[in-house]
Amino acid sequence: MVQNSLNCLKCGYIDLQLIHYPKDWGTSDKNPENSDHRMRIYRVFEEYKDSGYIRSIGVSNFEGRHIDEIWDNVKYRPVLNQCEFHPHLTRPELAHTPLASRSKSLFTDPVIVSIANRLDADISNIILSFAYQQKIGIIPKSGNASRIKSNISFLDIASKLTKEDIVLLKKLNKNHRYSDCDGWNVR
Question: Domain NADP-dependent oxidoreductase: where (predicted)?
Answer without folding.
Answer: 2-88
